[in-house]
Amino acid sequence: MAESHSQLVRFSAGPLVNPEIGKPRRPMEGDTVFRSMTGFEGNGGRASSGIWESTAGKFRADTTGYIEFGYILEGECRVVDPDGTVHALRAGDPFVMPEGYKGHWEVDAFVKKVWFVSLTN
């Protein structure tokens, strides 16, 4: 995954090859497992994009220091704002978590997204 500013960068949204396996840093319920793969890094490491999958569970989000654009590829979930507003997301739904967003995710079975992150500080 070399940084290049003169060519289009493509990466597969299909089955993840050698994904990183992880767990939520701020779990709330369940035994959630994340699988992720970075497909692009640029701007001196200040921007990146890839694919992320999550099994069932409930976990907190905290985008302190970055902005995230996401697009749901498969599955369904809910993202709940700190004030309790529920955003039901399913395949085909784009979203943005602004810098400092502190809501939480609720995944009933499985969700997969493509993401793009830009560091803000």
From TrEMBL:
Alphabetized Gene3D superfamilies for the sequence: Jelly Rolls
Domain (S)-ureidoglycine aminohydrolase cupin: 43-114
CDD domains: cupin_TM1112-like (cd02227)
Chain positions covered by the region annotation Disordered: 16-48
Name under which the protein is recorded: (S)-ureidoglycine aminohydrolase cupin domain-containing protein
Protein's organism: Pandoraea pneumonica
